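C-alpha cells incoming
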C-alpha cells in the first residue's frame, strides 16, 4: 500500500528578519491545529532564498510513524532511514523543515535536507532544548549553547564549562559557533539565525515545540530529538511512561464532578493578559479537574483583558494562579499590588492563590518533559488532590505564609 505524502509549502523567508529573543511566556501560548492536508505529490520545499535541495526520491516507500499528541512534527521511516518534518504556526500547511537521516540525499523525497547518519555534535539556541537532550543521555553531544548560564539542569551544568557560549546581546557570535564545530544547530523558525548559520555551512534544524497546545504534545518532542540523535527507543520508552502517568492522573472532562473555577493571568506593562482556551495552561487546568474561566476565548497567543472583565469574570473564580519571576517571599500583594478591587476577588479573600515562580522553578526547562508532575502540582494547587496524597508541589508553590491553609504552600 502506497503512503500519501503531506502537501508542503516552504516557509523560509528570503530576507533576514530581526532576531527575536526567546519569549519565556510562550508556555502559555497556543495555536489551533489546522486540518491534515494530504496529496499524491510532494510540493518542492524551498530553502532560504530560492535554494531547493536536489533529490530524485519519492514518498512511496516511506511510512509515517504516528504521534500520540504532538502536532508540530512528524517522523517518517524507510528501513533504517528517518525523515523528520517540522511545522510552524500554520500547522501542517506550514512546513519549516524537512530532514533526512540514514540515507543519501538523492534517495530522500524532494526538498529534504540530509543530516548524514545524524549529527554527532550539536549547538542549542534555546535553553528549552536542554531537557530533551539530557533526558536522552546525549548531553555529551552539545558543543555550544546560547544562554547556557540560565540552564538549571544539574547534569547539563556539570559539563557546561566545556561548551561554547554563542549568544550575544543582539544575535549570534558567529566566530564562537564556528569554533565549536557543530554538525547541526537546533533553532527556531523565526528570526535571522537560520540564514546566518546556513551561510556558515552549519545545517539549522528548526524546533517548534513551543507551539504545541497540549502538555503531552510538548513532552512528545522527546521523540523528535530521539529520531535525530539515534535514540528512538529511549525516547519512545521515556514518553510512553510520561504519557501513562499523565493519563492516569488526568480527570476526564466527561466525569460529573464539582470542578473549581480557575483564573490564570497577570498584569504585564499595565495590561491584563490571560492564556486562551486552546493553550497549554488551559489544557493543564482542565485535565487537573478545574474549569478555566476564559476557556471560551481562543487565540494564537495570550489575550488582553480589560479590568472590568477581570473583575466580573476573574473575580468570581475559586482559584487564581500566575507565572511570574518573584525574587522575594511571595505574598498576596504579588497578585493584587494593593488594588482594593483585586483584593475583593473570591480567590484572594479565600487565600486560594498559586504561583509558578520562574525564579525558583525550572518551568521553561525540566517542566517541559514533566507534564505529569505539572498536572499533579496543579491538582494540589486548585484543591482537587489532597496534599497528603501527593509529594511536595514542585512547580506551583511558595505562596502566602499567612494563608489559613499553609499546608498547601509548604
Amino acid at each position: 500500500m502506497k503512503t500519501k505524502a503531506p502537501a508542503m509549502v516552504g516557509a523560509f523567508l528570503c530576507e533576514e528578519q530581526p532576531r527575536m529573543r526567546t519569549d519565556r511566556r510562550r508556555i502559555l501560548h497556543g495555536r489551533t491545529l489546522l486540518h491534515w492536508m494530504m496529496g499524491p505529490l510532494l510540493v518542492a520545499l524551498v530553502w532560504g532564498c530560492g535554494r531547493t535541495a536536489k533529490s530524485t526520491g519519492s514518498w512511496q516507500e516511506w511510512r509515517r510513524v504516528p504521534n500520540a499528541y504532538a502536532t508540530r512534527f512528524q517522523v517518517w521511516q524507510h528501513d533504517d532511514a528517518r525523515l523528520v518534518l517540522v511545522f510552524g504556526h500554520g500547522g501542517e500547511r506550514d512546513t519549516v523543515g524537512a530532514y533526512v537521516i540514514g540515507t543519501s540525499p538523492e534517495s530522500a523525497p524532494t526538498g529534504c535536507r540530509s543530516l548524514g547518519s545524524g549529527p554527532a555534535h550539536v549547538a542549542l539556541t534555546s535553553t528549552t532544548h536542554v531537557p530533551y537532550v539530557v533526558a536522552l543521555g546525549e548531553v555529551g553531544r552539545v558543543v555550544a549553547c546560547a544562554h547556557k548560564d540560565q540552564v538549571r539542569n544539574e547534569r547539563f551544568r556539570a559539563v557546561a564549562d566545556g561548551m561554547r557560549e554563542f549568544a550575544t546581546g543582539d544575535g549570534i557570535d558567529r566566530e564562537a559557533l564556528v569554533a565549536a564545530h557543530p554538525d547541526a544547530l537546533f533553532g527556531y523558525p523565526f528570526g535571522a539565525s537560520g540564514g546566518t548559520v546556513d551561510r556558515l555551512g552549519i545545517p539549522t534544524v528548526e524546533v517548534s515545540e513551543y507551539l504545541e497546545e497540549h502538555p503531552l504534545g510538548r513532552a512528545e518532542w522527546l521523540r523528535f530529538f530521539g529520531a535525530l540523535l539515534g535514540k528512538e527507543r529511549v525516547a519512545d520508552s521515556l514518553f510512553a511512561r510520561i504519557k501513562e502517568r499523565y493519563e492516569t492522573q488526568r480527570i476526564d472532562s466527561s466525569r460529573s464532578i464539582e470542578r473549581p473555577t480557575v483564573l490564570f493571568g497577570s498584569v504585564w506593562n499595565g495590561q491584563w493578559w490571560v492564556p486562551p482556551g486552546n493553550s497549554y495552561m488551559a489544557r493543564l487546568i482542565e485535565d487537573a479537574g478545574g474549569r478555566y474561566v476564559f476557556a471560551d476565548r481562543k487565540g494564537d497567543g495570550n489575550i488582553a483583558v480589560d479590568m472590568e472583565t477581570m473583575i466580573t469574570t476573574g473575580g468570581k473564580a475559586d482559584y487564581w494562579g500566575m507565572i511570574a519571576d518573584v525574587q522575594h517571599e511571595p505574598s498576596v500583594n504579588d497578585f493584587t499590588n494593593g488594588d482594593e478591587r483585586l483584593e475583593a476577588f473570591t480567590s484572594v479573600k479565600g487565600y486560594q492563590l498559586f504561583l509558578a515562580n520562574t525564579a525558583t522553578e525550572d518551568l521553561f526547562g525540566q517542566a517541559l518533559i514533566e507534564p505529569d508532575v505539572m498536572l499533579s502540582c496543579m491538582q494540589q494547587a486548585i484543591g482537587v488532590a489532597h496534599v497528603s496524597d501527593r509529594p511536595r508541589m514542585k512547580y506551583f508553590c511558595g505562596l502566602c505564609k499567612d494563608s489559613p491553609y499553609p499546608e498547601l504552600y509548604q
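note: The longest strand covers residues 91-101.
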